[in-house]
Amino acid sequence: MTDGKIIDYKSAKMSMRPDDHRRKWDKDEFERIATERLKAELEEEEERTKKKAPPVKRELLKQRDYKVDLDSKLGKSVVITKNTPTSQSGGYYCNVCDCVVKDSINFLDHINGKKHQRNLGMSMKIERSTLDQVKARFSFNKRKLEEKKQDYELDTRLREAAEEEARLKELRRERRRDKKRKIEETEDPDDSPAQSELAQIMGFSGFGGSKK
Q: Where are the annotated segments for Disordered (predicted)?
């Protein structure tokens, strides 16, 4: 036996001399058999390699375009029986991997993990951004910042305008109150001594109207 495989010794030629009755094996014949066997094994291995399925090309890792629901079941009670489906048996259910995770932290670890991403058909590799993509992102962020600044300035101007309008309204109300008070004082028939004295000093005949 050689390398765990059986060799057919009967097919090997034996060299016999008339004066030597011991059998001697033909080394060249054994070497030829070993070479043929090795060639056959290599061909068989090559065939197996060709029959293997081509590697699956997976998408690059990308950002989720949806919000992960972690709060919809908070504060709710659910009755679970032996007939309750797995997706409703409590915890956070992953329909991609068909499993239930008991808390939100482990659920986030699961959906961000390698196994979940492979089941989604994605690898853990991230697309490398080009120079043009980086420039476009900078332009987008700059534009968003300018829009935010404009919105802030607009809000500030609107707030200042509202405050100024409130001040004007208060000033108009104050003027109306002063005017009303003066009218009431003018129409008052009783002149107090202090008012009469003040009127005499200033050269007026008096405040208010005269009695008939």
A: 172-212
